[in-house]
Amino acid sequence: MSTDAGRVSAQGPGAPGYPAPVRPPRAPGGRRSTTAVVCLLLGLAALTVAAVGTWAGHGPDVPADVAAFDRVREMWHSEPVDALLPPTLRGDGAGPGGADRTWTRIVLAPDSGCAGAFDPALAKELAPVGCERLLRATYTDATGTDVITVGLLFARAEPAPWSRAAARFEHEGVDSRARTLPRPVAGKDTPAARFGDHQRASWAIGLLPDAPVVVYAVSGFADGREIGRPQPAAEAMLDKQTSAAAQSGLGDEAQGVADGVEAALRARITATAPGEDR
């Protein structure tokens, strides 16, 4: 696989192009570069410091991080849906072997609570952060053979419990456990008409370190074929994997769409921060 990390941007009304958070490149043999990981962590730290500075100025009675969290958690209804779940996502180098990808939104679910959106094991893991609102959409690739449901869960947790939950997800590998999968959103008369639980091939899920939002995606084949054992995207994207998700690139699809939607969200966070020109 290519060692160049992909860049994903959103296209559509209210959704300016914005590079996705760059994942550490895959080194030969499936091992990630230590230098790239360090650079990524330093970059995230710098982004968080900059964000806190941008969101400051809410007065002595409201800590900047609490005010920032409150502002982001309300974006599900304060921002246009096309800005958060863009009609089109473009992934430069986001596919297998560094191939460019384009995904088109084919299903847009009504905003909702989180009941029924996750397998029971994942719902239990997410319960401590709460569910303010859930936005979901399903995309297809340019060939119409792959379908990917993506979700933005706006959580209720305040900064301290949110940070603990995000750290636990990362350090305990909750996002890669079997039976901790999000569920797809099908769409009648679309390529996702047969996209159900048994068609899930790969998934990616993450809690943003600096905002109360869970970003996830789950992918499968549009032809309705069943997948006996889904594989998390982080594993499916490693070299020399032989699962259906790895061989078909559905791990890359799940991760790429999740990255693209996260990029769109971060673009809106930056554009709407207090003191910024809109």
Automatic annotation (TrEMBL):
Pro residues compositional bias, start-end: 16-27
Segments of this protein annotated with the region Disordered: 1-30
Bilayer-crossing regions: 36-56
UniProt KW keywords: Membrane, Transmembrane, Transmembrane helix
Protein name: Uncharacterized protein
Upper taxonomic lineage: Bacteria, Bacillati, Actinomycetota, Actinomycetes, Kitasatosporales
